[in-house]
Design goal:
This protein has a single domain, classed as 3-Layer(aba) Sandwich (Rossmann fold), CATH 3.40.50. β1, α1 and β2 form a beta-alpha-beta unit. It is globular and about 45 Å long. It is of the alpha/beta class. α2 runs parallel beside α4 and α4 runs parallel beside α5. Helices cover 42% and strands 13% of the residues. The longest helix is centred in the last third of the chain and has 18 residues. The protein has a five-stranded parallel sheet, sandwiched between helices.
Length: 189
């Protein structure tokens, strides 16, 4: 879904899961649409394509990304995947391998990459929780990739900013998500 059309055709591809697909809220109120609106004001030479799918895992992302890269030829890929791997308790090394593959594909296609970090609830055990949270920073360091350390920074502790499922942010939380992404995205533009 193309959200804005930039004058020069530089595309930002948001490739994520329900957190980027505006699950449970009006699509036009999600952080990706808010990003498109900001870009129209501040960087009209960029457009945004949201290729996020609720429930997507990194394995699904690996299989879908080549087609999205060929179709949209993005200048920047915002890679917001991994949360569903964590919620399903999938092995962290497998998630990292999949994310590394997507970073490689994106770069080979000529795009800069912004990796978006996530955390899982502590009920997965302290070892898995630590390993999962560290995976994004480790991968960003190893692949020299821009990083949003934690997409939900600044709202994770406030249940009023989450839908009843306590996983998906509300409409009121979307500007916070946008700011978390924008800080790391702006230098890539």
């Amino acid at each position: 879904m193309c959200l804005s059309s930039g004058a020069w055709g530089q595309t930002i591809l948001v490739f994520g899961d329900s957190l980027s697909a505006a699950y449970g809220i009006a699509a036009q109120r999600g952080w990706v649409v808010l990003l498109a609106e900001r870009l129209q004001r501040e960087r009209p030479d960029y457009s945004v394509v949201n290729a996020s799918i609720s429930g997507e895992t990194t394995a699904g992302g690996v299989s879908r990304l080549p087609r999205a890269l060929a179709r949209h030829r993005p200048a920047v890929v915002i890679l917001e995947l991994g949360a569903n791997d964590g919620l399903r308790g999938l092995p962290v090394p497998e998630m990292k391998k999949n994310l590394a593959a997507m970073i490689g594909m994106s770069r080979k296609a000529g795009a800069k990459v912004l990796l978006v970090g996530m955390r899982v609830p502590p009920n997965y055990g302290p070892e898995y929780t630590r390993e999962f949270a560290a995976a994004f920073a480790e991968l960003a360091r190893a692949r020299k990739t821009a990083l949003v350390p934690f997409l939900l920074e600044g709202l994770a502790e406030d249940l009023r900013l989450f839908q009843p499922d306590r996983i998906h942010p509300t409409e009121n939380a979307q500007p916070i998500l946008l700011e978390n992404v924008w800080k790391a995205l702006r230098p890539l533009l």
